[in-house]
Amino acid sequence: MIVLDGISDLRTVVREWRGDGCSIAFVPTMGNLHAGHLALVEQAGSLGDRVVASIFVNPLQFGPGEDFVTYPRTLDADRAALEKLETDLLFIPDVQGMYPDAIDSTTRVDVPALDNILCGAHRPGFFTGVATVVAKLFNMVQPDTAVFGEKDYQQLLVIRQMVKDLSWPIEVAGVPTVREPDGLAMSSRNGYLTPRERSKAPELYRILCDVAGKIQAGESGYPALESKAMESLSQAGFRPDYVSIRCATTLAQPEPGEPDLVILAAAWMGTARLIDNVRISAS
Ligand code: PAF
């Protein structure tokens, strides 16, 4: 595996691969890799001739008082895991390389169709930070395909919208959420949970599955289902930010009878903000 931290070295390798006719699949990450990330890398291996992964904890997507400083950084273990999966190139830029001028005044990418709702409403500027860094990484790596997890469902749609709006010739692939045996979606932030909080955390997925079951059984009073799920989360020890039933492709509020839905939630358990979603499709 080639490991590079410089943008011009990265461009040189990618240019050579392209010259050889190879396609490139790209997995951007913030590191602290778990089985969910590794599933993205495996998927990338089936989608491109060369697989590039990046690790960069992006300061632009963390708000004041959020966990940028404490976000887990485990580069040696991440590198070993990527090596095992035969990743071709790991790109590990630093903050100075990614944002050479003042970060507060850097050029930004907004995706207004999607970035102020749900998680965007609770974490102002978060999706602008994500879209900006992913846009920069796309310009550096120039992938044919980029792979993201469906656990970060709104993020996946924001990236798809950005790629469409900016006319990039990049296929954005989504990979299903990888879960612990008790249902908890894998996340780097699960590491913030105490053993007691960890034992309660799978309730988030269980409550979302319960809402999905009710919708599949014919219930269509979405606001009542959302309020009831918020109550259940509070009773289970969470501080919920939201539970919302949305159209799966646009995140718009659904009309009754909409066949393709996603139930999304974000909730705090101790110091960990957990997100999860369950999709309901007609097919
Ligand atoms: O999902 C993540 O880990 C990050 O938001 C991403 C896409 C790597 C951008 O920093």
Detailed description of the structure:
- The chain is of the alpha/beta class and 283 residues long.
- The chain folds into 2 domains: 2-175, Rossmann fold, CATH 3.40.50.620; 188-277, Pantoate-beta-alanine ligase, C-terminal domain (Pantoate--beta-alanine Ligase, Chain: A,domain 2).
- It is 38% helix and 19% strand.
- It has helices at residues 7-19, 35-47, 75-84, 95-98, 119-122, 126-141, 153-165, 195-200, 203-216, 222-235, and strands at 2-4, 24-29, 50-55, 89-91, 145-149, 171-175, 239-247, 261-269, 272-280.
- The strands form 2 sheets. It has a 6-stranded parallel β-sheet with strand order 1-4-3-2-5-6, sandwiched between helices. Strands 7-8-9 form a 3-stranded antiparallel β-sheet.
- The termini are far apart.
- Pantoate binds at residues 28-30, 58, 61, 130, 133-134, 152, 155.
